[in-house]
């Protein structure tokens, strides 16, 4: 059973606009959440993380929001750039448990 | 830094054969993780090591899978015997933080095809 779900397999956004990638999780005990980006034929690279004691973390154009009551997190990219086109994975952990979602493919249209 | 190195990049083998995937973590990192990526299940953590010691192998699918880390600079993931359902991309990652909650550095992956 998927503990971390990314229900949108793909997303297209115009360059300069905001990209919002969503992620839902089932285990309310998860205490860290992360986002990774993956280009074809490469391994994932770390983007940003957030602890469960926070509801927002920002790093440049990337902001992660955590809504614990809804068991939902989102990644906002603004402004979106063509180089942001990639597959984005969310992940959640508690103790030795660590789960990735299935990914959302983002295409930023120039 | 060369990053995490995985070999081979592609492996095609027949059902029943033994497959060995190799990983060299980033120098100085003390944690190493093995993942499997499939379309249906996404990225799954199979096993991870801290200071060459296996910490959690609950993600290893079955006894056909085994992983070793004989020293800080080398790890193997072995499948014996291989089956077609093992076809996937296998990633190795390393970290200096000792827990998957922290940033991990991934290798380029090994694409395994079992026919």
Description:
The complex is a heterodimer of chains A (110) and B (115). Chain A is mainly β. Helix content of chain A is 0%, strand content 57%. Chain A is built from no helices and 11 strands. In chain A, the strands form 2 sheets. In chain A, strands 2, 4, 5, 9, 10 and 11 form a 6-stranded mixed β-sheet that branches. Chain A has a 5-stranded antiparallel β-sheet with strand order 1-3-8-7-6, with no helix packed on it. Chain A starts with a strand and ends with a strand. The mean pLDDT of chain B is 93. Chain B has strands at residues 5-7, 10-13, 19-24, 31-38, 42-50, 53-56, 65-71, 74-79, 88-95, 105-106, 110-114. Chain B has 115 residues and is mainly β.
In summary, what is this structure?
With 110 residues, chain A is mainly beta. Helix content of chain A is 0%, strand content 57%.
List the topology elements.
The complex is a heterodimer of chains A (about 110) and B (about 120).
Chain A: E1 4-5, E2 10-14, E3 19-25, E4 32-38, E5 45-51, E6 56-59, E7 62-67, E8 72-77, E9 86-94, E10 97-100, E11 104-109
Parallel strand pairs in A: 2-11
Antiparallel strand pairs in A: 1-3, 3-8, 4-5, 4-9, 6-7, 7-8, 9-10, 9-11
Chain B: E1 5-7, E2 10-13, E3 19-24, E4 31-38, E5 42-50, E6 53-56, E7 65-71, E8 74-79, E9 88-95, E10 105-106, E11 110-114
Parallel strand pairs in B: 2-11
Antiparallel strand pairs in B: 1-3, 3-8, 4-5, 4-9, 5-6, 7-8, 9-10, 9-11
């Amino acid at each position: 059973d998927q503990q971390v779900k990314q229900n949108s397999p793909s997303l297209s956004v115009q360059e300069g606009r905001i990209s919002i990638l969503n992620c839902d999780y089932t285990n309310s005990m998860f205490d860290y959440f992360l986002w990774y980006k993956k280009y074809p034929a490469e391994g994932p690279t770390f983007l940003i993380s957030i602890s469960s004691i926070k509801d927002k973390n920002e790093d440049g154009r990337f902001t992660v929001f955590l809504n614990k009551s809804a068991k939902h997190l989102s990644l906002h990219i603004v402004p979106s750039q063509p180089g942001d086109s990639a597959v984005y994975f969310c992940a959640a952990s508690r103790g030795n448990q660590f789960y990735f979602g299935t990914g959302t493919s983002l295409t930023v249209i120039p | 830094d060369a990053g995490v190195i995985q070999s081979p990049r592609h492996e095609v083998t027949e059902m029943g054969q033994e497959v060995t995937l190799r990983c060299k973590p980033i120098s100085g990192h003390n944690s190493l993780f093995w993942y499997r990526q499939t379309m249906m299940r996404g990225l799954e953590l199979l096993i991870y090591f801290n200071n060459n010691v296996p910490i959690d192998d609950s993600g290893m699918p079955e006894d056909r899978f085994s992983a070793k880390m004989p020293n800080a600079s080398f790890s193997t993931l072995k499948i014996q015997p291989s089956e077609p359902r093992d076809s996937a991309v296998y990633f190795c990652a390393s970290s200096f933080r000792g827990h998957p909650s922290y940033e991990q550095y991934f290798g380029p992956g090994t694409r395994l095809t079992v026919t």
